[in-house]
Amino acid sequence: MTLELDLDEAVLSRPRLSILAALIGGDAVDFTWFQKNLNISDGNLGTHLRKLEAENYIKAERVFVGRKPKTWFQITPEGRAALERLLRQLEAMLNPAGKSAAR
Amino acid sequence: MDDPDLANDIRYLREVVAKTQPRTANRYWPITVAWGCVVTTGYLACILLARAGRFAALPWVWPALIFLVGIPLHWYLQRRVRMNIEATGVRPRFRKDLLWCWVAITAMGFLWTAGMIYTNAGHWYLISFIWSTLYIVGYVMNGVLLSKEWFWAAGTLLVAVVAGFLAGPDYYWLPGLGIGVTFLLAGVLGRRNQSAAA
Description:
The structure holds two protein chains of two kinds.
Chain A: H1 14-23, E1 28-30, H2 31-38, H3 42-54, E2 58-65, E3 68-75, H4 77-94
Antiparallel strand pairs in A: 1-3, 2-3
Chain B: H1 6-20, H2 29-51, H3 58-86, E1 90-91, H4 96-119, H5 125-145, H6 149-167, H7 174-197
Helix pairs in contact in B: 2-3, 2-7, 4-5, 5-6, 5-7, 6-7
């Protein structure tokens, strides 16, 4: 039996999924916050953020606080839709009959 | 997922989401306290001026307090609170829903007040009853959209309105004074809730 999965590879990775999950509340978050809370190495974090930005799933706003540069990351409507789509697909996979999993 | 242990991944994601979900505490409680002080002071100033017979000064009390004290203080405190939050690495989103809620309530209040003044259609105390009932709606909306302590403020103001109405004309000042006092109540409870959530 083959199982065809049309899952969004840009979202389906633990670091990128956790970045989107962190931003889903709507607040903007800076690079340092991700470093402290996501437990991802700096290089990897930068790569994952760039990937999500390239997919237009997050947007970056670069500002200066005093003389220090700071980048705020915020989820875009496309990113929110992609995360919600993935969650729906995963839910459908786990519960193909459409029955409620809640107990 | 990269990690084969799905349960661990789900637990990890839950923790990440919990850290950035909109909080149930009002981090802007200093602004609530500031408006509580401004409104209570304004109401007490009106009472004292009326008792002293200085009625010419009455129309200037609210514009002076709102524009010269309330709004600058609001701007300053908002900036300070926002800077403190941003120092933690999170920039809160702009709450358009709350803005429009309070713009609508204020516009309704001004329309009612203007209508009553121009048509000379009622006693002064009706204005305080109108503003109080509008503020109850605003507090409930704050409770739904922002944090739960606003329900206490709404309940207290509702009690003040009903008690003032039932107690008769000698106590018709109660709802008006209740607005400022309930702002203070919401601010103090907001501070407590934020300390508990921290």
